[in-house]
Amino acid sequence: MKKSLLFFAAAVLSLFSILVPGADAAEEQWISYVNERFGYSIEYPDIFSDIQESDNGDGVWLSFETDKYALTLSGGYNVLEEDAESKLRNRLEEIPSIVPGSEKSGPGWYRVIHTIESGVDGTESFFYEYGIIDSENWATFILLYPSEERERFAAIAAKMEKTLQLSSSEGTESEGTDSKAFVPDDPFFMENGQVYKNETLLDCEVYEVPSGLDNDIKFWTVIGTGTSDVVTGEETGVWFFGEHGEYVTNIFLKNEKEYQDLLWNPAGDRLVLVRGIEGEQDLVFELYAEYMEKKAEFRGLRASLAWLEDGMRFVFTRIDDIREGVPPSDLPYGLKLSAVLYDSAIEETIPLKESTDTKNFSFDSVSEDGEHIALTETSVQSSKDWGEEEKIKEREIKVPMPAAG
To answer: Where is the signal peptide (predicted)?
Structure first.
């Protein structure tokens, strides 16, 4: 078994020179892998172009043409009748440069991270290893990534940990599937409902996610230089934490005042982050999926967005352009506004009513039965009349709810 483990670690190191370019997290898709020989399965991100099966059928090596990322999946029989604690203990004897605090085990699982200096410039990379074991089999993944991307890969590793399963343990769930990915050197954490950077308490309000996510985000807050003098401008953003206060991921902001709102969908697995300047009508709506990958961005009107009950679609007032000849003080009449619906399942925007030279349409509400959407139509006789308030008329109209998908 020890020789097999040593060979496995060496195999990962050999992949160091052949892996993936910096793909945008928003473009990642997930692939399911099943190993029939040793009865394990896992999901991994589609950032690899080449897959090489091992000769003995214990797993796969995933690679690309640069040395940035790598992934090895492996499994075997538990012939030595090990448990997770002894498995981790053996690994600690075999691997160098362990990241302090990353070595951990629980019933049926273990985790350890070690480092390597790679490339001609000596860039530091992490080997993130996570394994599960029962009385019959064991399975592991080892994920290689550069240290500067540890926050992005915390979310990726978290999902991989949760999806790694042994068929011989079907019907049971180990503590490891509920624990979060370890983020090396991350100074932010929560304790007793409050956020700290290292030992300093931050002055920020903590909010709870409306329902559980697959990546186990439970809390979120906005952190910036205004919360404490120990926070730097580069750390300003919306920060997300797990059930036990561990850091999960974050969305960076230019400054904390840029944050205006955060709107979760009914399922709690998608959100719209609202950015802008306090008091201005022109805002930016950014859609993020469950692992905080950015999926879409729109210019929208303040207080004009609402999720539908299906959790995949939302309605909002889109800002199409600025109307020529209308003074800025006359906004929002000086903006061309359309009422639209965005379907995140098909990643398409569906116009409900689009602006014209003489008409604006803004979203008001969704009917209780979900069959109609109420809009406000703002109109003038001539495009020259937008600057004269007495010539502007408003009326409420209703449009049928488009079919999903």
So the answer is: 1-25
